[in-house]
Design brief:
Number of strands: 0
Organism: Coptotermes formosanus
Radius of gyration: 38 Å
Structural class: mainly alpha
Keywords: Membrane, Transmembrane, Transmembrane helix
Mean pLDDT: 83
Domain Fatty acid hydroxylase: 212-335
Order of helices and strands: HHHHHHHHHHHHHHH
Strand content: under 5%
Protein name: Fatty acid hydroxylase domain-containing protein
Region (Disordered): 1-20
Number of helices: 15
Length: 370
Amino acid sequence: MRKPVAHLSSKSQRTPTRGHGPVIVRGFAMEEFQSATALHHKKTVQDASGAQQPTLLSSLWSVLFVISSALIGFAAFRNTLTWHLQRFWGASGDFWQAQWDRLLDVVGEDPFTFWVYGPAILMMAVYWIVGGIYTILDVANKPAAVRRYKIQPGTNEPVDSKRLMKVIGWVLFNQIVVTMPFIYLSYSVMEWRGFPALRELPTFRWVLVEIAVHILMEEIGFYYSHRLLHNAYLYRFIHKRHHEWTAPIAVTAMYCHPFENIFSNVLPIFLGVFVMGSHVATAWLWFSMAILFTLNSHSGYHLPFLPSNEAHDFHHLKFNQCYGVLGVLDRIHGTDTMFRNSRAYARHVLMLSLLPPREAFPDESKCKAK
């Protein structure tokens, strides 16, 4: 009798035979698992890289959305403000036109009267009424609450009467003897250029455009003429008089050499009026604004709700900084570096509260002491 085949009964051989199928299945399953894992990993990487791109795009869109929203908001605010002001101007336009017509009916329509006598009277009235109020504060050294707004505390408290009288004398000389002839000359120049009809007032929007040009022309004219006056020779013989006051007061705005008064004070203000061929009413408005601004710049007080005059006060203190009116050309030419590194620059803001700037932005030594 023949024996069974050994390989069928051998356990050692049977086990591989029995186990061959499962080993192959496990290997295939493992390969499938590894392939699936690799595909999943690849897909995950692709998803991750794909997720990064939308994130960058979404960030970009967010930035664009914020910027565009801000621009739209600003445009809407500007248009709304302009619309309300236009409505006010339009609603009161008849009123102002009626008052202007009444003035013309009384004074007549001679351009000489409006271009010569008008600016002269306006200059004297605005300068001495507003400048006089500041002077009273400086002479009386009261009230104490106002002294808290002094840019340079301890100076001109009270102002020296002899120095003040010298200033008043020189200012009157510049206004009457120097500026009056220039006003007449400016009338002749405007007559040559051709000015608009006297009786019809300009529109509100056009007044805004002209005032913007006037401000720009003054910034250019004043900056370069003022900086030229700081030439060693010109400073010594011309501009030094104005810088006698390292801590200025309001009425020192026109305390200067006659040449400087014409070249650097009056001419830059007139440039925009000539370029735009402004209506005399717009010219009056602009002249008043310019006089009020220069009085404030020299006042020595940084009062709330008024434009900051820290820059020009710093110019009187340091001599070679902040030559301009707006500060735009100073930034471009780098003539405000020392100012921007000073504590005065932190105070160079429009104060919208009654807190004095020196208390809102105290000196660094006082900050360290606290």
